[in-house]
Amino acid sequence: MDWSRRRMLGAASMVAVSAAAPRLAQASTGVRKLGFHNLHTDEALDVAYWEDGAYVPDALAAVNRVLRDFRTGDEHVISPRLLDLLNTLSARLETGQRFQVISGYRSPTTNAALHARSGEVATGSLHMLGEAIDIRVPGVELTHLHDAALSLGAGGVGYYPSSDFVHVDVGRVRRWSGS
């Protein structure tokens, strides 16, 4: 097989993989809502973050505020893709409960300090990009939350039964268990 044919086959396989990548179905009209309770700051937020075809800037700013790094006070843009993932997860769980937030955005300083204490904290954590969140939901068994997150087939899902949370992110599809 010559080099150009290998390149063509490689490119074709990349197209096939990206075409098979899971997509979260979202309505193009209507309203998307989420609720959060930050367990570290005791702040709560119920917000319509998307209405009739557009993300709502003030709502996104409110999400950024409630999901900030509670250790430093630093805020970061939370990925709308993460919000859409959580919206889909909430619908899958068939609950109107707020997500209890263990960790939303983490500054690089906070992430480095946590990594120094635990090898379970990734050095390149998606929390630092606003693309990951650690959650639980009142009245929903952690195993059910974990299974529902896995059933979406989108992003990373970490299961931490001893620490009582599930990690979800909008990175590549993968799964793991921690403590």
Descriptive notes:
The chain is an alpha+beta fold and 179 residues long. It contains 5 helices and 8 strands; from the N terminus they run αβββααβαβαβββ. The chain has helices at residues 3-20, 57-66, 80-93, 108-117, 142-151; strands at 31-38, 44-51, 54-55, 99-103, 132-136, 156-160, 165-169, 174-177. The chain has an 8-stranded mixed β-sheet with strand order 3-2-1-4-5-7-6-8. A hairpin with a 4-residue loop joins strand 6 (156-160) and strand 7 (165-169). It is globular, with a radius of gyration of 18 Å. Residues 1-23 have low confidence and may be disordered.
Pattern of helices and strands: HEEEHHEHEHEEE
Strand order of the largest sheet: 3-2-1-4-5-7-6-8
Strand element count: 8
Percent of residues in beta strands? 15-25%
Q: So how many helices?
A: 5
Q: Kindly state the percentage of residues in helix.
A: 25-40%
Q: What does the main sheet amount to? A: 8 strands, mixed
Uncertain segments are: 1-23
Q: Estimate the global geometry from the Cα principal axes.
A: globular
The separation of the N and C termini measures: 48 Å
What's the alpha carbon Rg, rounded to whole Å? 18 Å
Which structural class best describes the helix and strand composition? alpha+beta
Mean pLDDT across the residues is: 88
Blueprint (SSEs and pairs):
Layout: H1 3-20, E1 31-38, E2 44-51, E3 54-55, H2 57-66, H3 80-93, E4 99-103, H4 108-117, E5 132-136, H5 142-151, E6 156-160, E7 165-169, E8 174-177
Parallel strand pairs: 1-4, 6-8
Antiparallel strand pairs: 1-2, 2-3, 4-5, 5-7, 6-7
